[in-house]
TrEMBL record:
Signal peptide: none
Record field: transmembrane: 9-26, 55-76, 83-102, 127-149, 209-226, 235-255, 261-279
Any one Gene Ontology molecular-function term assigned to this protein's record: transmembrane transporter activity
Predominant place of localization: membrane
Lineage of the species this protein comes from: Bacteria, Bacillati, Bacillota, Bacilli, Lactobacillales
InterPro entries recorded: ABC_transp_permease
Identification of the protein by name: Branched-chain amino acid ABC transporter permease
A GO CC term assigned to this protein in UniProt: plasma membrane
Topology of the protein relative to the lipid bilayer: Multi-pass membrane protein
Keywords: Cell membrane, Membrane, Transmembrane, Transmembrane helix
Places the protein is found: Cell membrane
Length: 295
């Protein structure tokens, strides 16, 4: 079970990396996440059941997520709709898109090929195929992100999030950077949805409900545990945070709590993680000598 949780954590970490691109770098939450995640899974599973190779099916899921992010970006930058509302509008619309793609609320991959089947010849122990799959995709995604953010385009993207007015004064097209960020991040999020759908063996129209909480938990847990980090270290910290989150969920299940209410446990874990910095600050103030407090 622990190995399974680690493998799941790695696949969910890809979601966290996608959310990080907007939530932490551009400094706004993108609600499109809850639509692009199940869209990636729906397109991927539908493609596989139609006879398309799992790798190409996964790439189609990524492209679908990128299209969703592009629409949100255009509504936000060109339509001047607030980013949260633009994300909600696209998320709501994607519900119908997913139903149109699958022609049913859920679609099974029973007796269909999956991307993790490539590891069958290695005769790995149970769940180790998911760990291998997670490692491979995380190495690819993190390497691509590090390469991108070290280019002039990537630096312009970071500058847009740091100080939009300054970036605009330097000639950076900030609207284009926002569209780019939303497109790329939702592509990464859809990749996570496609991989998790293959791991679970099915796609479901309601699979995106609450996933933004899981992604944010990965980011927040990593930041709380490790504090100040370099950019590369922060990406790795998200992976560690996602694995720890999945282990915490496993602990909740092992303690005998009803799995029907996992969403509320997810919300509580995230809330506690968000409160930790304030709790540390309060404890430090409480235990500091009075003279230091006066200073």
């Amino acid at each position: 079970m622990i190995v399974s949780a680690i493998g799941q954590g790695m696949l969910w970490a890809i979601l966290g990396l996608g959310i990080f691109m907007t939530y932490r770098i551009l400094n706004f939450p993108d609600m499109t996440t809850e639509g692009s995640f199940p869209l990636g899974g729906a397109v991927c599973v539908t493609a596989i059941t139609s006879g398309i190779h799992p790798i190409f099916a996964t790439l189609l899921g990524v492209l679908a997520g990128m299209c969703a992010g592009l629409v949100t970006g255009l509504l936000f930058t060109k339509g001047k709709i607030p980013v949260i509302l633009a994300g909600i509008l696209v998320m709501s619309g994607l519900n119908s898109v997913i139903l149109y793609v699958m022609q049913t609320p859920n679609l099974s991959l029973l007796n269909q090929p999956k991307i993790q089947d490539f590891f069958l010849s290695l005769n790995l122990p149970n769940y180790y195929d998911i760990v291998f799959l997670g490692v491979i995709f995380l190495v690819i995604i993190i390497s691509l992100l590090l390469f991108f953010f070290n280019t002039n385009l990537g630096q312009a993207y970071i500058a847009t999030g740091d100080n939009e007015h300054m970036a605009r004064s330097l000639g950076i097209k900030t609207d284009s950077m926002k569209i780019l960020g939303l497109t790329l991040s939702n592509g990464v999020i859809a990749l996570s949805g496609a991989l998790i759908a293959q791991n679970d063996g099915y796609a479901d129209v309601n699979k995106g409900t609450g996933v933004i909480v899981i992604g944010l938990a990965s980011i927040i847990i990593g930041e709380v545990l490790f504090g100040e980090l370099t950019f590369a270290e922060r990406l790795v910290a998200i992976v560690v945070g996602s694995i720890i989150y999945q282990l915490l969920i496993l602990l909740v299940i092992k303690l005998g709590f009803d799995t029907t209410y996992l969403k509320i446990f997810s919300a509580v874990i995230l809330a506690l993680c968000l409160m930790i910095p304030q709790l540390k600050k309060a404890l430090n103030l409480h235990f500091l000598p009075e003279k230091e407090v006066e200073k």
